[in-house]
Every structure is written in C-alpha cells, then in structure tokens.
Design a protein that fits this description.
There is one protein chain. The protein has 16 helices and 16 strands. By secondary structure, it is α/β, with parallel strands linked by helices. A ten-stranded mixed β-sheet has the order 3-4-2-1-5-6-7-10-9-8, with helices on both faces. The protein has a six-stranded parallel β-sheet with strand order 13-12-11-14-15-16, sandwiched between helices. Helix 3 packs across helix 4, helix 8 crosses helix 12 and helix 9 runs parallel beside helix 12. It binds 6-O-phosphono-beta-D-fructofuranose. 6-O-phosphono-beta-D-fructofuranose binds next to helix 1.
C-alpha cells in the first residue's frame, strides 16, 4: 500500500507538541491507522532557516518539521493566512485586507515547504496537503518534478465566487487548487463555492461535474468529505474525566446545582461569541425565572493574538461579559463565566459531558467538531441538549440539534430556553439520532474515503 505523507502548517507530535483543532485530531488519527509521515512547521523560527527538516519517529509515524524565518512567518501567518484568507473564506470582508508583500511571503513559505518536502517523497507515496496555509504547495511540488498523487483537503469553508473575487490573486489560488488530483471540502456548499470559482476563472475551458472537473486534458477529482470524530474515544474520555478529573470536579462544585450552558471555542470572530453573549443576555432579560438558576461558562482560549480583528473581539467580549455580570450577578451568582484558558482535551470532554446545554453558535464554520464532540461526550441515559448554528458545517449532519440562526438573538434565547427545559425522552431521542450519524460519518470514514478517492484519480 502507498505510504501516506500528510502535510499541514502545524503538526501534532504526541508527547511533544499540541496543535489545536480538528485538523490535528483528524490527521493524527489517519496516520495512527495508516502509518506514514507528517510534514510541517516545527513551531520554531530561525533566521538562517535552512531547508533540512528535523525528523522524529513516534507511534510508527515519522514527523518531519522545518523552522521558518520569523521575517517570513509574520506576514505569512498573521498576514495572508489569517488577515486575508481566513476572513475571505468565512465571509468577513470587513476583517479582510490584502497586501501584496504578504502574498509574497505566503508563496515564499509554500516554496520553502516544497523545497524541503520534495526530496523526502518516495516513489509510490500519496501526498495529502491540508488547509488554506498551503494551497499552492501541490503546484510547487509538481514544478519540482514530484509525480506522486497529491490531494488537498480544505478544513475551512470555500466561498462563492462573488465573495472570492475581492481577493486580487484569487484566480492564481483557484489555478493552484486545480493542480491537485483531488480537492476535498467539508460540505456540498463548499464544493459548490469551488465549482463557482472554477467556472469564474476558466469559463468554457473547464467542464465541471459533481465529482470531477475536466480541464486542459486533465481530470481533477472534487468531493465533500465531512470530517468526523472518534465517538468511542471521546465517550470513554468524557466518562473517565467526569469521574476522575479534578478540574471537572471543581467545575461541577462551582455550579451549586445550577444548570450549565457551555461553550468551548477558540477566541475567533467566526465563532459568533459576541452574538452568543447578546443572546444569553436576551435569555436572562426575557426569563426572570432563570435568574440565579443557570450558569453560562464560555471557554475561549486565545488565538492569533497578533491579528487586529482578534484583539478587537477580545475587548468586545470582555465588555459584554462585564456588562451582563454587572447587571445580573448576585452575591452568590455569576451569570457568565468567561475563561481565556485552555484545558487538556480529556478535561474538555469531561466539561462537555457535565453540560445541560452545549452552545455552538458560530456565524460561519467549516465543520465545528465541538458540536460533534459534545454529542459524543454525553451520558446516553441523561444527555444534554445541543443548540447549534445552521452556519456550521456540522449542522448539515446534526439535524436533531436545535438549529438556530446565530444573528437572531431572540430565536437563540428561545432555543436555549427550550434546551434547558427539554424533557428526558426528547433529549434521549435527539441524542440517539445524532449518535447514529456520528458513527456513520466517523473519523475513519473521513480519511478512508478521501484516500480511496485519491487512489482512484
Ligand atoms: O481549519 C482551521 C484550523 O486551521 C484548524 O487547524 C484549527 O481548528 C485551527 O484552524 C487552528 O488555527 P491556528 O493554527 O491558527 O492556531
């Protein structure tokens, strides 16, 4: 069988480095099963950064990482990746900026990846590139003579051409994606966005089908491959954390018997936290009987702190939490507990298990694995209820959650009230239905279906 070479900006080396988010969990899970190599950034900067990668073998996986020069990293990561592509792909033109020198840094980092990776690729390898940081990598590897099959999976949304066009270099990036053998997205909607982009760039030169694009005598596979979670691992972890984890015990003790509404998100404007705080305030305003009876805990570890839009959202949330607490708190009750703190994954699954209501209301999200993890972490005998934004990719699958428009704060407040009061029989029914979906669209299905499609292309 062909060796898998996974490539992403961050890598997650068990026992050495932790990379946040679904990408790391998904890629690690694929490599644990299939073996192979994971190539990416070491997390370190070196100004004389050479191209020689450092390697380490763990759990049957080879990890190969390179340092990046700090002068390039800042405009690459804080600039083009997270102040250009991220807002563009999440439909936030207000947070979008374009700076040609940042695009140059993006291309330079992708070239550094390609130069360091190409010599490590062996005959018969399959290369799987992940996410928006590395869109041109496939094309750059081809220019260096790499003939392996190369696929790309985008973990974030893909916007419609009408939005994509605000990026001056959008056509170059669409052309780069068309150099892969297979391009995968989280949902059908993202796939439609990409098809609209290919049509916009190539017009009649491209013939676009539901799973293939024919272009200049080449075939490019396209498809939706929704990423999943390892249901059994999370269920086990959550059960153990609920029994044994000191942090979970402290969280429960602090509730003093109140019902818990819980949100767990990276601090990012796409997560809809400002709107969520406002909806919770509307809930308290409209339901005086809940005052002193519920606690909303929002865990929001800091992220991308050097990008201006992230600093702004942080200020807005501090003000919103202070405002609600100032108005409603009592000597023995804090309505909102807002923590910019990270916790180990196992502890977080214990927190999710203890929540009566999981509040997952991004204003735009490629998938959102917290929603899936919330479901997997519940006690099936007495599960909590999930309030989920219809703007998250996971809403396409978790149709038995209470689906809301995160901008409609009265509707979100109503859904929160309905979730808090939901009878046990209904909670069980919804939970069982969502668990069925999670078991079918599992994490192994994600990587197996992507890899087998790539082998066919
Ligand atoms: O796809 C989104 C993503 O790149 C995931 O890896 C993860 O959820 C998150 O963003 C991590 O962001 P960063 O690497 O900027 O901390």
């Amino acid at each position: 069988m062909s060796r898998l070479v996974a490539v992403s900006n961050r890598v997650c080396i068990p026992g050495y480095s932790i990379a946040p988010g679904g990408l790391a969990v998904g890629v690690l899970s694929a490599l644990r099963q299939l073996g192979g190599m994971w190539f990416g950034w070491s997390g370190n900067h070196r100004d004389d950064a050479g191209v020689e990668p450092e390697t380490i073998d763990k759990e049957g996986i080879r990890f190969a990482t390179i340092d990046l020069p700090s002068a390039r990293f800042e405009p690459f990561y804080n600039g083009f990746c997270n102040a250009t592509l991220w807002p563009l792909h999440h439909y936030f033109p207000g947070a979008f900026r374009y700076d040609a020198s940042e695009f140059e840094a993006y291309m330079a980092v992708n070239r550094a990846f390609a130069n360091a990776l190409a010599p490590l690729i062996q005959d018969g390898d399959t290369v799987w590139v992940h996410d928006y940081h590395l869109i041109p990598l496939g094309s750059l590897l081809r220019q260096l003579g790499v003939r392996a099959r190369i696929g790309h999976f985008l973990h974030i949304p893909y916007p419609n051409i009408a939005v994509l066009r605000i990026l001056p270099v959008y056509a170059e990036l669409v052309r780069d994606l068309c150099q892969y053998d297979l391009v995968g997205f989280q949902t059908e909607e993202d796939l439609e966005g990409f098809s609209s982009a290919v049509k916009g760039v190539f017009r009649d030169e491209a013939s676009i089908g539901s799973d293939r694009i024919e272009l200049a005598g080449r075939r490019i596979g396209i498809g939706a491959f929704p990423i999943g979670v390892d249901v059994d691992v999370i269920a086990r972890q959550a059960g153990a954390a609920a029994r044994e984890d000191e942090q979970v015990r402290r969280l429960v003790a602090g509730l003093l018997g109140r019902k818990l509404l819980l949100g767990v998100d990276r601090l990012d404007y796409s997560k809809g936290l400002v709107e969520r705080f406002a909806s919770y305030r509307t809930l308290l305003e409209s339901s005086p009987e809940l005052l002193g009876k519920v606690s909303y805990i929002q865990i929001a570890p800091l992220s991308r702190i050097n990008v201006a839009a992230y600093a702004e959202i942080r200020d807005a949330l501090e003000r919103a939490a202070g405002h609600t607490n100032g108005q409603y708190a009592d000597t023995d009750w804090t309505p909102v507990r807002y923590l910019n703190k990270d916790f180990p994954h196992a502890t977080l699954s214990g927190f999710l298990r203890m929540a009566n209501v999981g509040v997952v209301t991004p204003v735009r999200d490629g998938m959102n694995l917290v929603a899936k993890e919330f479901v997997a972490a519940q006690d099936p005998e007495d599960p909590g209820a999930l309030v989920l934004s219809s703007m998250a990719g996971s809403a396409r699958e978790l149709t038995d959650a209470l689906l809301v428009n995160p901008y409609d704060r009265r509707a979100v407040a109503l859904a929160l009230r309905q979730a808090l009061a939901m009878p046990l029989a209904e909670r069980r029914m919804r939970h069982e239905a969502m668990m069925k979906v999670l078991r079918v669209n599992s994490i192994s299905r994600w990587y197996k279906s992507f890899m087998s499609r790539l082998a066919e292309e």
